[in-house]
Structures are given as structure tokens and as C-alpha cells.
Amino acid sequence: MEILFATGNMNKVSEASEIFSKKGLSVLQLELGGSTPEFIEPQSEDMEEIAVSKIEQARAMVEGTPLEHSAILVEDSGLFIDSLRNFPGPYSSYVERTIGLTGILNLLKEEENREAEFRALAAISFDGKIVKAVGSCRGKIAYSVIGESGFGYDPIFIPYEGDGRTCGEMSRVEKSQISHRGRALKEVSELLNPPSK
Length: 197
Ligand code: ITT
Description:
By secondary structure, the chain is α/β, with parallel strands linked by helices. The protein has one domain: Alpha-Beta Complex (Maf protein), CATH 3.90.950.10. It is built from 6 helices and 6 strands. The chain has helices at residues 10-21, 47-62, 92-98, 100-107, 172-178, 180-192; strands at 2-5, 26-29, 71-81, 115-126, 129-141, 157-159. A 6-stranded mixed β-sheet has the order 2-1-3-4-5-6. It is globular. Bound molecules: inosine 5'-triphosphate (ITT). Inosine 5'-triphosphate (ITT) binds at residues 7-9, 12, 75-79, 92-93, 96, 118, 150-154, 167, 179, 181.
């Protein structure tokens, strides 16, 4: 079975491919007419609302095309920093594009509490149903940008379940084992294809 991932982020597609391949499922980026469709993300603090809205938009886009009956995956994620009262949270994309990683480090310059959490909500629509799962990963914000792997906030996030390196210093496989997205995608893949008892 093939799953179409409605995302503009190829790093997410690679991470999902890695996880779903273990279930014998392949993941491809959803493309229509040779390009990745643009979604309107509702300004909401509720990740589930954002994910469901993306699924509805994607389903409407594939209607009447050869992809109409394909399974569609969406995922919404963000970085929630304790001392900033969960900022940037649902605004993580915007904040990354505007003030960037150094902007976040500047906001935390005098702050000793570096606790933070990545959260993800993954949802798959297939056969008229939607299955959803959440995942989180706790850690702390580094004092500088370290590492060139991954994407987004990876070079400033040190997961507690790691060995002190940032996610930006980890391989894709290492990150997926403990990451918010790894967990949400693994769970949603199990709901799709429950292990035989
Ligand atoms: P979509 O097209 O799937 O929406 P996106 O990159 O905009 O792709 P999100 O809105 O889910 O994804 O991500 C919100 C922000 O959080 C964005 O700035 C990402 O770079 C960042 N982010 C999400 N997951 C991350 C991860 O695993 N590591 C580092 N940063 C991450």
C-alpha cells in the first residue's frame, strides 16, 4: 500500500518512509500536476484541528483525480518551550522563518530553564476513516546552534533520551527512535496495520 504524505517538507517524507517501510508501506510526497499543493493552515492552537483541516483540503484536491482513493497522511508539529509559556508552539513555522534559531536562543539568553518539548500529531485518512496519533519528545534548548543534520529546530534541541547531542547531530534513524514524529508515525502506522496477535 502507498501512502501520500501531504507536506511541503521532504525531511518529513524521508522520516516517514523510514518508519512505514518497516510495515511494508511506502510513503510518497503528495503531488498534483507535478507540484506540491499549498495548504491553508488555520490559525489554531489545536494541532488536531490543523491536521484535520489539512486532510480535508487534501481530500478535496485529489477528488476526481487518479489519487482519489489513496491513503493520505498529514502531520503537524511544533516546539513548545516551557519558560516561554509554550511559545512558539503552533507558530513554530512562522517563528523559524522570521526570528529563526538564533532569535529563539536570544529570547532564552538569560534563561536557565531550557526545558522544551517537540509535539506531533499525525493523521491518516483512508477508506473514509481518519486515524490519529500523537507523539512528544522532551529535552532542552542548547546554548548554540550545533549540527547540520535534520531540519528546523533540530540543531538547538537536545532530547533527554539521547546522549547529550542535539537532534542536528543525529542520524535520521537515531532521531526517529526518540522523536515526536517518530512516535506519532509509528503509532499511526500500527493503527493502520495492527500487529497480528
Ligand atoms: P508541512 O508542510 O508538513 O506543514 P512544515 O515544515 O511547515 O511542513 P510543521 O508546520 O509541522 O511543518 O512544523 C512546524 C515547525 O516546527 C517548522 O518550523 C519545523 O521546521 C519545526 N519542526 C517540526 N518538526 C521538527 C523536527 O523534527 N525537528 C526540528 N524542527 C521541527
